Amino acid sequence: MDKPRKIHPDFLYFLEMKEQPLIDLFVDIRHYILGLYPNSNELLYHTHALTSVFSISDKLSDAFCMLPIYTNHLNLGFTKGTLINDPHTLLVGTGNLIRHIPIGMPADYRNPKVKALLKSAVDFATKDMESPAKVKGETISKIKTGKK
After folding, report:
1. Helix or strand or coil: residue 52?
2. What dihedral angle (degrees, nearest 10) is formed by the CA atoms of 21, 26, 27, 28?
3. How many domains are contained in the chain?
Protein backbone atom coordinates (compact mmCIF):
# COMPACT_ATOMS: atom_id res chain seq x y z
CA MET A 1 0.00 0.00 0.00
CA ASP A 2 1.26 3.46 -0.86
CA LYS A 3 2.13 5.92 1.86
CA PRO A 4 -0.96 8.03 2.68
CA ARG A 5 -1.03 11.56 1.30
CA LYS A 6 -0.22 14.04 4.05
CA ILE A 7 -2.93 16.36 5.27
CA HIS A 8 -2.21 19.90 4.09
CA PRO A 9 -1.04 22.22 6.93
CA ASP A 10 -3.82 24.76 6.24
CA PHE A 11 -6.44 22.05 6.71
CA LEU A 12 -4.64 20.48 9.65
CA TYR A 13 -4.66 23.84 11.45
CA PHE A 14 -8.49 23.73 11.66
CA LEU A 15 -8.83 19.95 11.87
CA GLU A 16 -6.81 19.86 15.09
CA MET A 17 -9.50 22.04 16.71
CA LYS A 18 -12.00 19.16 16.40
CA GLU A 19 -12.54 16.34 18.91
CA GLN A 20 -10.18 13.38 18.45
CA PRO A 21 -12.86 10.81 17.48
CA LEU A 22 -14.01 13.10 14.66
CA ILE A 23 -10.41 13.63 13.52
CA ASP A 24 -9.81 9.87 13.52
CA LEU A 25 -12.96 9.25 11.50
CA PHE A 26 -12.01 11.93 8.96
CA VAL A 27 -8.47 10.56 8.59
CA ASP A 28 -9.80 7.06 8.00
CA ILE A 29 -12.45 7.97 5.42
CA ARG A 30 -10.03 10.29 3.61
CA HIS A 31 -7.48 7.46 3.46
CA TYR A 32 -10.23 5.13 2.18
CA ILE A 33 -11.24 7.50 -0.64
CA LEU A 34 -7.64 8.23 -1.64
CA GLY A 35 -6.92 4.50 -1.55
CA LEU A 36 -9.74 3.90 -4.04
CA TYR A 37 -8.92 6.95 -6.19
CA PRO A 38 -5.28 7.97 -5.64
CA ASN A 39 -5.22 10.22 -8.73
CA SER A 40 -8.06 12.37 -7.44
CA ASN A 41 -7.27 15.91 -6.45
CA GLU A 42 -8.21 17.12 -2.99
CA LEU A 43 -9.57 20.66 -2.84
CA LEU A 44 -9.67 22.14 0.66
CA TYR A 45 -12.13 24.74 1.93
CA HIS A 46 -13.09 26.33 5.23
CA THR A 47 -16.47 28.05 5.03
CA HIS A 48 -19.49 26.91 7.10
CA ALA A 49 -17.67 23.58 7.44
CA LEU A 50 -14.10 22.39 7.10
CA THR A 51 -14.34 20.50 3.83
CA SER A 52 -12.15 18.20 1.79
CA VAL A 53 -13.48 17.85 -1.77
CA PHE A 54 -12.30 15.08 -4.10
CA SER A 55 -12.24 15.93 -7.79
CA ILE A 56 -11.05 14.33 -11.00
CA SER A 57 -9.53 17.69 -11.98
CA ASP A 58 -8.49 20.84 -10.15
CA LYS A 59 -12.04 22.23 -10.53
CA LEU A 60 -14.83 22.08 -7.98
CA SER A 61 -17.26 21.42 -10.85
CA ASP A 62 -15.51 18.08 -11.49
CA ALA A 63 -15.82 16.89 -7.90
CA PHE A 64 -17.26 13.47 -7.14
CA CYS A 65 -17.46 13.56 -3.35
CA MET A 66 -16.65 15.65 -0.31
CA LEU A 67 -16.12 15.35 3.42
CA PRO A 68 -17.62 18.32 5.24
CA ILE A 69 -16.66 18.32 8.91
CA TYR A 70 -19.04 20.13 11.23
CA THR A 71 -18.76 20.73 14.98
CA ASN A 72 -19.77 17.23 16.07
CA HIS A 73 -20.16 15.15 12.91
CA LEU A 74 -19.12 14.65 9.32
CA ASN A 75 -20.79 13.49 6.13
CA LEU A 76 -19.73 11.74 2.98
CA GLY A 77 -21.25 14.13 0.48
CA PHE A 78 -21.81 13.63 -3.21
CA THR A 79 -21.71 16.88 -5.17
CA LYS A 80 -23.99 15.51 -7.90
CA GLY A 81 -25.84 13.08 -5.69
CA THR A 82 -29.21 13.54 -7.39
CA LEU A 83 -27.66 12.56 -10.74
CA ILE A 84 -25.74 9.41 -9.79
CA ASN A 85 -27.03 5.87 -9.56
CA ASP A 86 -28.02 5.09 -5.94
CA PRO A 87 -29.72 1.66 -6.13
CA HIS A 88 -29.62 1.14 -2.35
CA THR A 89 -31.01 4.63 -1.56
CA LEU A 90 -28.09 5.44 0.73
CA LEU A 91 -28.14 9.17 0.01
CA VAL A 92 -30.16 11.67 2.01
CA GLY A 93 -30.78 15.39 1.62
CA THR A 94 -33.09 17.83 -0.09
CA GLY A 95 -30.78 20.02 -2.18
CA ASN A 96 -30.98 20.37 -5.96
CA LEU A 97 -27.79 18.32 -6.49
CA ILE A 98 -25.96 17.48 -3.27
CA ARG A 99 -26.80 14.38 -1.25
CA HIS A 100 -24.89 12.76 1.60
CA ILE A 101 -24.44 9.78 3.86
CA PRO A 102 -24.17 10.60 7.57
CA ILE A 103 -20.94 9.11 8.93
CA GLY A 104 -20.61 7.97 12.53
CA MET A 105 -18.32 4.95 12.20
CA PRO A 106 -16.18 3.22 9.56
CA ALA A 107 -18.92 0.67 8.81
CA ASP A 108 -20.98 3.58 7.42
CA TYR A 109 -18.61 3.83 4.42
CA ARG A 110 -16.33 0.78 4.43
CA ASN A 111 -18.81 -1.47 2.67
CA PRO A 112 -19.55 -2.61 -0.89
CA LYS A 113 -22.64 -0.41 -1.31
CA VAL A 114 -20.77 2.83 -0.58
CA LYS A 115 -17.79 1.67 -2.64
CA ALA A 116 -20.16 1.15 -5.60
CA LEU A 117 -21.70 4.59 -4.99
CA LEU A 118 -18.24 6.20 -5.04
CA LYS A 119 -17.48 4.40 -8.31
CA SER A 120 -20.75 5.65 -9.76
CA ALA A 121 -19.88 9.21 -8.70
CA VAL A 122 -16.41 9.01 -10.27
CA ASP A 123 -17.85 7.55 -13.48
CA PHE A 124 -20.43 10.34 -13.66
CA ALA A 125 -17.82 13.06 -12.97
CA THR A 126 -15.54 11.62 -15.65
CA LYS A 127 -18.32 11.61 -18.27
CA ASP A 128 -19.51 15.09 -17.20
CA MET A 129 -16.04 16.69 -17.30
CA GLU A 130 -15.64 19.43 -19.92
CA SER A 131 -11.89 19.17 -20.50
CA PRO A 132 -9.16 16.69 -19.55
CA ALA A 133 -7.57 17.06 -16.13
CA LYS A 134 -4.26 18.91 -16.11
CA VAL A 135 -3.52 18.04 -12.49
CA LYS A 136 -3.73 14.62 -10.85
CA GLY A 137 -3.15 13.45 -7.31
CA GLU A 138 -2.60 16.91 -5.83
CA THR A 139 -3.89 18.66 -2.72
CA ILE A 140 -4.96 22.23 -3.38
CA SER A 141 -5.75 24.50 -0.43
CA LYS A 142 -8.30 27.30 -0.79
CA ILE A 143 -8.05 27.99 2.96
CA LYS A 144 -6.84 31.19 4.54
CA THR A 145 -5.67 30.34 8.06
CA GLY A 146 -4.72 33.79 9.23
CA LYS A 147 -1.43 32.34 10.51
CA LYS A 148 1.69 34.39 9.97
Report:
1. strand
2. 90
3. 1
